[in-house]
UniProtKB/TrEMBL annotation:
Family annotation (Gene3D superfamilies): E3 ubiquitin-protein ligase SopA, P-loop containing nucleotide triphosphate hydrolases
Superkingdom field: Bacteria
Classification via SUPFAM superfamilies: P-loop containing nucleoside triphosphate hydrolases, Pentapeptide repeat-like
Lineage: Bacteria, Pseudomonadati, Nitrospinota/Tectimicrobiota group, Candidatus Tectimicrobiota, Candidatus Entotheonellia
Name of the protein described by the UniProt record: NACHT domain-containing protein
InterPro entries attached to this UniProt entry: 5peptide_repeat (IPR001646), P-loop_NTPase (IPR027417), Pentapeptide-BTB/POZ_domain (IPR051082)
Amino acid sequence: MARPAPKSKARRPSLKDPEWWTSIAVDLLDFKPASLAKNLSKLLKTDRPDIEKTLTRLYTDTFAACLRQWETDTTAATKAPKPTAKAFDLGAFHPHFPMRHPFFSDLLNRARQHMVKTSGNEATGQQIEDHIRFEFGRFFNLTRMANSQTYAAANAYIDLIRSGYDTPEGQVIAHTNTVLNALAHDPLPIDPDLTLWDLYVTPTARYWDTGTLDKANAQEAETVEYLIASLLKTLGNSTAPIIIHGQPGHGKSSSVRMLTHAIVTQERRTRAPQRTQVLFYEFKELGRLDRNELQILAERTPFLRDVNFFHGQRTVLILDGMDERQITDGSDIALKEFVRHLFTLADHRNRRDDTRLNLVFTGHSQFVRHVQSAFSTAYHLYEIQNFTSGQIESWLQKYCVLKQVSPALTAKDFEAKHLNDLISQPILLTITAMMLVDAQGQALLNNLSAESEGAISRGVIYRTIITWTYLKKWQHHPSREALPDESAYTHFLRMIAFVLFREGQESVKTSTLIEALKANNELYDLEVIRNKDDETIKDLCCHVAVSFFFKGLEDNVFAFIHKSIKDYLTVEAWFVLLQDITGTFDARRLDRSCEAMAGDLYFLFGHQAIVLEDHLEFLEDLIAVRKDEARRLFAPLTALFKAVQNHQYLLKHGGAQGPNPVLTEVNLLTSLLHLLTMILHGYSDEEQQVIFPDGYPKFFDESDDFHRFISLLQTTGIDRFYNERFDFRHFDFSDANLAGADLGDVNLAGANLQGANLRLANLQWADLEGADLEGADLEGANLQDAYLEGANLRLANLLQAYLAGANLQGAELDEDVQLPEGIGDTMSIDRTNSGKTQLITPDDLKQRLEWMAQIQSFGRRLADRQVRLGDLILEGREELEERA
């Protein structure tokens, strides 16, 4: 197997790339107005030797200050490397990015080599490099300001250059340069030896233009071989917003960063008469979204004061990671309103002849579909696809040259480890490549492939990555005794992930994290922080962060390098906490057991619910691997789910989870039902027969319970029930009162619906394959395009039921049943493009939002009243459904 060759690090190889700008070195935008250029020339003419000398000393002294912070038993490691005799290159110096200078790289490489040589440990060299990169920027400014006389010449030069960026135009350029600098010079958190520009390979995508109304139809899409080239073309030809979506780890964020470089490089190459203003934001950094959109953006870019900023300019405004938003009210209403207002802002600005404002959004595929009602004008849609075999080989070629891997890795090396289904995602390709060229990582993958009969799942590979990180980094860390084994190390990571989940955030300040861990440690059971002061816990958090895949430490913030890593650890945290919470459950003392569990389960899921697109795959993997442990959760969670349906504990426990008790109840109910259905479908038919003697699982005991559940969900968000995508296969809904219920596109395959009241219910696109609908009342029901193959419809009332496009092949029907003209029992449909077809008009949407605001206000008033929430909703069901 391939191993890194013991050679010095090489720069990016000159490889053939499908898009020329991805091979052109990233260069920062220069901004030197005539007055600044004149003053610089005058200063350098008289003081150049002093400036070079004092900048050299400033770098060396800053480096020494960073090393003094480094706590180690090796005293030699605290000695800063001596500077070379080579003159300081002023042309390569940028006051905003001091670590970009080659002199810093030289000091860093020699310090790392010295540490590895004296300690005999490669991991220690990596740790000191991480520490210096983390501290250097802060110490650079502290050192030069604390000793202003010593560095007088350097300070004069730095202050003069910075003055050029004080104008709005200069501030925009400085903002864009931050993105470009990170692209070209910031080490990848996942592999500090590389940068994004080093490894980027342009993905392919599907593309729907503004004229395509049905953007869920793959047949309407155009295949785009080179994403960046297509984006540049679209930006040049249209002012309509651009939406880029894809699965986790597909390179959405990387692509919009490379797009920034492509825009700047293309304009520099063509000598465009007007420079495009490129503004880049991450949703997770925007804070609360329930405010004016320009006020929100101005907090990150103060030069954007009002709409006049855009007038007479060409601007590309990139907002990355819609699914990584900060949740402030437990829903996505604020985010949708923020996006809708930006669409309106761009539309109005683009009506001016002298102005061009392009919006570019990215997000997880399922989440983008969830919020698409906020896209209030025509838009372009790109869906990033998996890496092709050619793109994988191109990426591996770059990686192996840069990392000096010989012999080079190929796709066959991954296939031999059953990893071929994972490496089409760039993030997993990167991590598994790192493991394959490492002895410990390779051994772990060998064990996995030996134990696996087929392809390895994402959940299993993430579990292995955590083990590898523990062995590779934490075991060699000076603070490793604080978390002495893998179990303690992993548990600490899980609880950090859970805090982020519960806060509804992708990043958290260190102080907030420490406060949350201490406040709830009775549940978290982190022995390592018990009776410890904040400073001790902070040190431990920082040490763990350096050893794992975290970023943001330079800003005193914790964030996983990729959302999928946080999501996997969150799922593991739920599983461990659920085992602890349900450990004392006693079916003989049902009420007492449920009361004992309720408080902790409201804490677990009342504030934030399981998100299907983020957590489902990992939950299924974990339940499959730990099947016996998962099954022990089934009885206690079922008992609590039924109790929560009747809102027995809402007044006691729900108020602590947020201002809206309705939302709290819905979050807990939906999370419990997802867990129960996933555990249930892991049982064989024979095992289900033992648990449910009647042959069908029944979670809704009374005839109105399921309708009450649906109505409750709909009060917290438009199409909340539909978006949850519950799996009701083989459920028992016999005799249920579901008149008028919206069950469109719901999976009810094999369900028992005998005698159910489904009058006027919406079952469009519902999967009813093999369902038992004997004696069900379907009068006036909408069964358009429903999948009824093999269903039992004997004695069912189909009077005035709408069956256009329904698949009734093999369905059991009464001999004298009267079907609408053109509908036969052998008719079939194409189900590859299922989904709701009814469009929501702006007036409908406005009415729904007004209604939801009233419901939320109603929920807040409930906090101080003794009421049975489900009964109130059921009593007003007709009005609620009519308005929803």
